[in-house]
Amino acid sequence: MSVRIQSEAFDAGAELNTFTAAQAGAGAVVSFTGIVRDAGGSLQDMLIEHYPGMTERAIGKIVDQAMTRWPLTDALVIHRFGPLKPSDPIMMVATASAHRAAAFEAADFLMDYLKSRAPFWKKEVTGEGEMWVAAKDEDEGRLERW
After folding, report:
1. Which of 72, 94, 95, 142 could tie 107 with a disulfide, CB 3.0–4.6 Å?
2. How many Cα atoms sit within 13 Å of 27 on the Cβ side?
3. Per the domain annotation, does 9 fall within a domain?
4. What is residue 142's three-state secondary structure?
5. Tens digits of per-residue pLDDT, 86-144?
């Protein structure tokens, strides 16, 4: 299991290749890469803040839950902080298991919990100013299925 919180960009393809190469006992690897979305067409930057140490511990607990709940052989979470531009990779989740259902379900669980429970604060910067991004009811609602 690996959790990395970093300001540096990452290459999702290279990360996936490295993760997959280390999964000798797995029959399935599932990955998801989130990118900064510019829904309104005016986003200049997405500023992501976090508390070092606290963030890694919180995400580590979420990954531990996934590792306990599903028969995973490994899991990877990468999440960036700092200023990001539209279309920059912001996060990545990868899970490995003997069977695909567990890998898919665990990845979905991790993405839902990262979206709603990981301690990050996001601020959008546009030509019109800055605005903190509020939690969305639909994201919170997705947690009910777990």
Report:
1. 95
2. 6
3. yes
4. helix
5. 999 999 999 999 999 999 999 999 999 999 999 999 999 998 999 999 888 887 888 88
- The amino acid sitting at 28 is A
* Residues 66-80, mean pLDDT to the nearest whole number: 98
Residue 96's domain is classified under what CATH number?
Answer: 3.90.1170.40
Residue 39 lies inside a defined structural domain of this protein: yes
Angle (CA) 70-108-115 rounded to 5° is 125
- Residue 77 structure tokens: 């979470």
pLDDT-above-70 percentage for the chain: 100
The pairing of strands 28-35 and 2-6 is unpaired
In a domain, 146, yes or no: no
54, 43 Cβ separation under 8 angstroms: no
Domain that holds residue 52: 2-134
